[in-house]
Amino acid sequence: MFKIAKNLVKTFEQTLSLSDQDRLDGFFQSIPPNLLESQIHSNTDMSTLSDVLSGLRVVYVDELQLQLESYFDFIVGIDDDPLPLMNNQHGYLYPDYNEIIRLLNIHAEQASPVKLNVWSAKGGTFRDEYMSLSAIPSDENQMEDINLSNDTPHHQLSSKIFSPLGFKVQWTPLIAATYTYHVLQLNIEGGPAHAAGLIPDEDYIIGSQDGLLATGGETLLQDLIRSRANHDLILYVYNKVVDCVRPVTVNIGPDGRLGCGVGYGFLHRIPTVRKQEDGNTSMHSNKGITNAPTAAIPVPTFDQPMSSETFVPGIAKPPPTSKSSKKHAVNISTMGDYFSEGKDQSPTPKPSTGDKDASIPPPPSKNTEETQ
Fold this sequence. Notes:
By secondary structure, the chain is α+β, with helices and mostly antiparallel strands. It has helices at 2-16, 37-42, 49-52, 97-110, 192-196, 220-227, 323-327, 335-339, 366-371, and strands at 54-61, 73-78, 81-82, 85-87, 93-95, 114-120, 125-131, 167-173, 181-186, 203-208, 232-239, 244-251, 260-263, 274-275, 281-285, 288-291.
């Protein structure tokens, strides 16, 4: 009896226990569990699982490399396998860059594309990117071309034979992608936010100069603004309508206020970028779907905050011609026909060719007139 009760309690505990995927923040559940397996098993604290998961964050992209997007993209796997990790001197997991280089060298030797498993901070979406690698001549094998990390010295890396990748990465916790501050409304007319051109509902503050917002926190932006009173502050702002990031210089006044309300947390993370059928990138917002350009364009400063009631006049067109004016319009080339209207249009009989005076009637005789 005791054994049956013990098995029943064990079964009940297994039913109530959460899986590793359920322990994750919903923002990261699009990542396949096998890519995070090594990091999940190394974490013994269930409450901080989402805080310790990390990936290779793309921090720089060459202008010719369009497959990845800096700041938002995290490489979490290679060829559907987890990133090779190792423990650093402090006991924390860290990428094994030598193993990563070895994997890329294999693809370069075989002239086969490498499959990068990428997680995006825009909506927490997951995708695969295929990148072609080509081998470079041995005399051009320069270690300074390696752009895998800003933290690992080049002399500690294995030699590589693949051509430059065109991007740089940095080992970063995935939770850092959620450190965003959503601009909700402008509170002060002519205030710093209004003068800098921040757009309510569309803009997200994702960073600042010198990385002062890198650690996140609900009150961090407020504390930063107060500390920069009477100074200029450069904020990096993402706009969900045009899908680009722009630097904004804000002149903080003596009161240490930004002049706008912001939201922070799960409901104020960057939304998903949707793809239309024609391949154009678009964003959905409260104002409808707006096509976004493929290249990032600067957003101009507005005297008034942009809203759905803003009217942009187009090119003025002449008023349409009324029906009455069209009815009485007369063509000059047909003026003769206009005056000939109603006349007999039958042809005049032609005179006989033998009688030259047949067309001229004879005058009445004088005797006849006198007789009458």
